[in-house]
Amino acid sequence: MSVIDTMLERNKEFAAHETAAGKLMPSLPKAMPNVKALIIGCADMRVDPAHLLGVESGEAVVLRNIGGRVTPGLIEQIGMLGRIGQVAGVAPGGGGEFHIVILQHTDCGITRLAGDPALLAPYFQIQESEVAAKTVLDPRNAVAMDVASLRAIGALPASWMISGIVYDVATGLVDVVVPPAPLRSA
Ligand SMILES: [Zn+2]
Question: Would you say 138 is a known binding-site residue?
Fold first, then answer.
């Protein structure tokens, strides 16, 4: 059986349980008010936030890229998400608490690109000479840096909570590098 055949079989299993239980379908048009978090994570196949953090269907929007980094492209997507919410007439968190979680990890593939500033500079839309400051070899520093860069975006609601965590692929545990706090103090 090919990879896609296996996936299609698994999807039949999924659909039989999830939709028959009425878990997804009835709430679909109202799904967004249930969204409690936006998780920014790495594309690495070992670090799916749904697995690591037990995120359930409808609970969080997950944006993944190489490294789980805050890049101009990622910021553009956050803006588009906000616009979708406006058009749909719903507020993230349904008016309650809403969290941005930046999730990076040890042994990240982006570390293999650290010696290639010509590749990373356009990704971050910075000069090649500035790539070293992005600390792609050190996820703890990178998480803290990316939290700070989102805090600097005035268009994001000040009351949203933000945190930065690093997943250790060796232990399976996440380490809270930046504890949850509002994006900006009131
Ligand atoms: Zn990674």
Answer: no
Per-residue pLDDT of the chain (186 residues; tens, 9 = 90+): 799 999 999 999 988 887 655 444 444 445 455 788 999 999 999 999 999 999 988 889 999 999 999 999 999 999 999 888 888 777 777 668 899 999 999 999 999 999 999 999 999 999 999 999 999 999 999 999 999 999 999 999 999 999 999 999 999 999 999 999 999 986
Query: What's the 56 CA to ligand 1 centre distance in angstroms?
Result: 22
Q: Which CATH superfamily is domain 35-182 in?
A: Carbonic anhydrase (3.40.1050.10)
| pTM for the whole structure | 0.90
Distance in angstroms (rounded) separating the CA atoms of residues 99 and 91: 13
Ligand 1 centroid to Cα of residue 139, in Å, is 9
| 42 CA → ligand 1 middle, Å | 5
| Domain residue extents for the chain | 1-26, 35-182
User: Is residue 105 annotated as involved in ligand binding?
Assistant: yes
Secondary structure string (H, E, C) spanning 24-65: CHHHHHHCHHHCCEEEEEECCCCCCHHHHCCCCCCCEEEEEE
